[in-house]
Task: inverse folding
């Protein structure tokens, strides 16, 4: 399917504009509200999302939008839907930690066709079009060649309800720490995915995510030659909420670690 070239142009413009807005207020005192115990939102999140919605309404008034702060098409609609995170890494941003980005995907009939992620601190623009490859500032991206966990650097994130699931979340983290060269937690799922695409990380897993966290980054990984599934190996969908993204070589091994850990936590069946 030939895509309208304005789709990628708009995606790039939106995330770069979002990054400029983020940087303009980084380090300033923010109005910080809580959507949950540790789930934050700032006035910058809201301003960026309103900018984005206005841009899409002007250019593509018949397109659906799903974005973090003001909601939208929670179930993937037929036709085009823009899936946007105005600041992926809001907790980092609110604390002045320069690991955050804007993340965007254009899904058509529930399948991502365009992805764009912009990290304004490093001025890194990650882009992809389905069947068109993935790029960083215009240069082609390729996943790493690491074939063993002991040679791999992995990355993950923790869900907002981690306080009630510490043993589960930290337990799986520990299972990977025991086998990998290193495991990191950066605080932005979209950046994590892009780092897998760029070969900086070899694998990423996380559960209980939202479509805007992963829709764009997952496409970028796939187009860089990686593999993306659910954490149980099922077909990935942005609405599924669970993701395992790897360079491909490590995918089955990481699935085995996750499956083995979960089996060990399952309640024992008694006769």
Result:
């Amino acid at each position: 399917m030939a895509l309208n070239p304005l789709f990628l142009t708009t995606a790039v413009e939106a995330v770069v504009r979002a990054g400029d807005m983020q940087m303009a207020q980084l380090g300033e005192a923010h109005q910080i509200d809580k959507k949950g115990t540790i789930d934050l939102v700032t006035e910058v999140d809201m301003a960026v999302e309103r900018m984005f919605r206005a841009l899409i309404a002007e250019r593509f008034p018949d397109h659906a939008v799903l974005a973090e702060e003001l909601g939208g098409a929670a179930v993937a609609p037929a036709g085009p839907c823009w899936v946007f995170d105005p600041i992926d890494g809001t907790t980092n941003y609110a604390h002045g930690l320069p690991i955050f980005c804007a993340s965007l995907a254009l899904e058509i009939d529930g399948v991502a066709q365009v992805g764009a992620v912009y990290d304004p601190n490093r001025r890194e623009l990650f882009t992809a079009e389905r069947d068109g490859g993935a790029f960083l500032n215009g240069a082609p991206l390729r996943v790493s060649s690491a074939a063993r966990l002991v040679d791999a650097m992995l990355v993950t994130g923790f869900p907002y309800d981690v306080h009630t699931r510490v043993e589960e979340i930290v337990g799986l983290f520990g299972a990977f720490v025991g086998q990998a060269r290193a495991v990191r937690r950066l605080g932005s799922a979209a950046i994590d995915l892009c780092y897998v695409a760029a070969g900086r990380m070899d694998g990423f897993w996380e559960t209980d995510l939202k479509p805007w966290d992963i829709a764009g980054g997952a496409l970028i990984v796939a187009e860089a030659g990686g593999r993306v599934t659910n954490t149980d190996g099922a077909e990935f969908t942005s609405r599924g909420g669970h993701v395992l993204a790897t360079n491909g070589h490590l995918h089955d091994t990481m699935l085995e670690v996750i499956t083995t850990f979960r089996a060990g936590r399952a309640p024992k069946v008694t006769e």
